[in-house]
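dumping this here before i forget
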Amino acid sequence: MKKLSSHLILFLAVFFSYSSHAYEILEASFNDDDLLLPIPDGYCDATDDLAGIFAMDYILKTDAITKYDPIPKVVFTRCGFENNLDELYPWGYIGLQNNSTPSISQTAFNEQMSQILTNSKFMDKFNEVSEDTIEKKWSEEYGDDESELNFGEFRVLYSNENIVVLEMQNKLLTEGQIIIEEIIGSATMLSKTGVYYYIYELENGKTTILENASTLIDNSKRLKRIN
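structure:
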């Protein structure tokens, strides 16, 4: 009986330890690459829910140059808010993109990103072209000639062998309102696919830049471990 009790206690300890660290994992196929995509802590898959459908439309609407941008596959929101548009922020999505051929390592990718983002002349031109492209898209495809979009400075917050984390800001003028989004993006280079995570939050919102960066750093460890 004592031995049985010991095994039961051990089983329960392992079970609750696992449960307390459980997270949602989605399967995805992308260009012959079968992937497991963990949803960051505190968030749930909302791709097919009201918030996810709305957010996906927003992503595609602000996608400047599709052939260069990661393809959005999964939208996530805070758990319990998958159908709540009034409490959408913070929310995020996962995008996928082919890794280079031959594939680029995480270290090399991190170095490239750092070099690109510190080239102010290139980034100023990139932002100008992107803003003009998006606003033209809004006008031609959505009939919106009033809204304006301005990109703030992009910068690297953190990088290691699993990830590079970027901070960026969108300032959107629409219907007489100014909306400022603080965006944390991350990129993890797997052997065939680059996996990109983004978390969107309003300025002075419910979460901070450092909290969202930490969430994606932790998530990158799982992503690399299960793939």
